[in-house]
TrEMBL record:
This is CHAT domain-containing protein. InterPro entries: CHAT_dom (IPR024983). Pfam families: CHAT (PF12770). It comes from marine sediment metagenome. Residues 62-123 form the CHAT domain.
Length: 157
């Protein structure tokens, strides 16, 4: 079972939304045996305007992908521009930014999508790095041999 937790500044508590069972997603993203990589990706993230028939060779799955993963969240995200995602399980294989929500638009057209490995990262302050440690200070490296054999390095140490 896949669910989403919606955290918004105007919510007192997170809202949990049921999305789907994994087998439903597997059915959509199952790659046909004869499909090339590029054709599979095109079909997965394409929103077909034409009515598909049971005899159609090409099954565009973008609309199904949107309806399964994103449509249940859409009404809760009105007015939101930035999304933080911590996908788990099979969702790691999905490019959320490429999911279409119409025949001409994808989610990255509507949202700034940021991936995090854990929702904990959202609460952490972003660290800024000061690469200049001291005024009038420099690190200089010379004589670097990028083609040096790792076996020779091991022999020298």
């Amino acid at each position: 079972m896949y669910c989403a937790l919606i955290l918004r500044a105007d919510y007192e508590n997170p809202e949990m939304v049921y999305l789907f069972e994994e087998k439903e997603l597997e059915k959509i993203v199952k790659r046909p045996e004869n499909a090339s990589d590029i054709n599979f990706i095109k079909q997965l993230y394409a929103w077909d305007k034409r009515k598909q028939t049971a005899t159609s060779d090409t099954k565009y799955k973008g609309k199904s992908l949107y309806n399964l993963i994103w449509n249940p969240l859409d009404s809760l995200l009105r007015g939101i521009k930035t999304i933080y995602l911590a996908p788990s399980g099979f969702l790691h294989k999905i490019s959320f930014a490429a999911i279409p929500y119409s025949d001409t638009n994808i989610l990255s057209d509507k949202y700034q999508i940021n991936y995090v490995s854990s929702t904990r990262e959202i609460t952490l302050k972003k660290k800024t790095y000061n690469f200049i440690e001291k005024e009038n200070y420099a690190r200089i490296y010379g004589g670097i041999s990028y083609d040096f054999d790792s076996v020779k390095i091991a022999e020298l140490t």
